[in-house]
Amino acid sequence: MLHSNLSISNTGHLMIGGADVVELAVKYGTPLYIIDEDRVRENCRTYLKALRTHLPHGSKVLYASKALCYAGIFKVMKEESVCIDIVSAGELYTALRAGFPAENMFFHGNSKPDIEIEYAINAGVGHFVVDSAEELEKIDMHAGRMRKIQKVLLRVTPNIDTHTHKKIATGTIDCKFGTPIETGQAEQFVKTILAKKNVRLDGLHCHVGSQIFDEMPYCQAAEVMTDFIADLYKKTGWMPEYLNLGGGFGVRYTEEDPAIDYAGWIERLGEKLKTLCAERGIPVPALLLEPGRSIVGDAGITVYSVTGVKEIPGHASYVAVDGGMTDNPRYALYEAKYTMLLANKPKKPKNYLCTVAGRCCESGDLLGENISIQKPVKGDLLTVLTTGAYNYSMASNYNRVPRPAMVAVKEGKDFLAVRRESFEDLIALDTL
Ligand SMILES: *Cc1c(COP(=O)(O)O)cnc(C)c1O
Fold it and tell me: Are 371 and 321 in contact (CB under 8 A)?
């Protein structure tokens, strides 16, 4: 199986985290997201352990909430001693309601509305990751009004091309995020922050992209960032406590994708960082990493019912399911590849080549093309693997399709993490 938390039961059903996927589909209905909470925790621990072993005290894992955001996930992160990165007051509110401490939050985003900046400062958010001069002014002003010193990091762009999809590449000079080092603007920005009365600059941040399978971009980023730090120290006397190298570690969606040894990456990145700092005569900063996809991606699957099979001889075979771009827009957005199978007959040969079609009124509403699955009939449980990240968090109500429920599995037991949307939920905002 693609991931070690997946297996096949004696009765010939797909299992995740020790739970029978067919039984869960019967119990909760389809489409259904299933999240293996044990796997989420295991992924957190892999990162934490590697950071504790190979990097200075104070290094932290920041879970990128946008990958999968619901109240329960923040309880898990709190229990696992993981900090979080949030990008909106909505994520902030969800985390607060789940009892997650505001001090351990990092507020990201290239376009934070004033009202959300005020809300976050009032709530006691630990750090802002500053991305514009206007944002800095607003933070300084509001923190002053609240008689607080707000801690911040500055997001810069190291100008590194990661060879990932352009919609998820974020480290280049012309990108909408961050302030470029190359143009001298980042240095100027640091000086501006240091001169602010109500703001304390704790470190620098960069994030080069997502779904990265190569260690090189992180090592290159470490090189560019330590150069920048050494140069800044000479010019200003400021030394960062934290260096945040972002997230983006790749996840295996198909057998062709390599399996990544995240702990090995962190160990080598730690060595590289120590060498770079020694060469530049600067102390090794505490390292912050912001994995999203690689914490929750392989912990999730989505189960659909096949509603029909349409064969157009010589052209295409469509397998239609009771969900689609409303619960997983990633194929429609950037042709993201997935592994699929039928959960009720996973041992049968995967020799049926097809296009998996969603139910929405868009030709582009597909979950995949050239997909090999077991020969399907109506009622089979088509299951898409590795949907823990950027599925539920990107879901919509297009065509007024209610969002699926999400069931969590922990130590083989299942419980509802997010209930299915009802028709009442769909009209809850409408004036009748
Ligand atoms: C999206 C994002 C992440 C997480 O990326 P993954 O690919 O999910 O690990 C981390 N940091 C920032 C700033 C991001 O925008």
Answer: no
Relative to the CA of 205, which ligand 1 atom is closest? Answer: 13
The CATH number for 193's domain is 3.20.20.10
Which of 236, 257, 291 delimits the end of a domain? 291
**Confidence label for 165 from pLDDT (cuts 50, 70 and 90):** low
Q: Edge to edge, what strands does the sheet with 6-8 contain?
A: 6-8, 14-16, 19-20
Domain boundary, last residue among 291, 323, 338: 291
Give domain status of residue 69, yes or no: no
pLDDT mean over 244-254: 97
The set of residues, in sequence order, having a beta carbon less than 8 Å from that of 336 and lying 6+ positions away, is: 253, 330
pTM of the predicted structure, to 2 decimals:
0.96
Q: What's the 364 CA to ligand 1 centre distance in angstroms?
A: 26
Instruction: Give me the number of domains the chain comprises.
Output: 2
Whether 193 is in a domain gets the answer: yes
- Cα(248) to ligand 1 centroid in Å equals 5
* Domain co-membership, 114 together with 196: yes
Any atom of ligand 1 within 6 Å of the Cβ of 85: yes
Choose the residue to mutate in 40, 46, 66 for probing ligand 1, maximizing ligand atoms within 8 Å of C-beta.
66
68-113: pLDDT as tens digits: 999 999 999 999 999 999 999 999 999 999 999 999 999 999 999 9
Same domain, 269 and 315: no
Residue 333 burial (CB count, 10 A): 15
The best mutation among 85, 155, 204 to test binding of ligand 1, ranked by most ligand atoms within 8 Å of the C-beta, falls on: 85
Q: What is the CATH number of the domain that holds 14?
A: 2.40.37.10
Query: Does 300 sit in the ligand 1 pocket, CB within 6 Å?
Result: no
pLDDT confidence band for 354 (50 / 70 / 90): very high
What's the 253 CA to ligand 1 centre distance in angstroms? 17
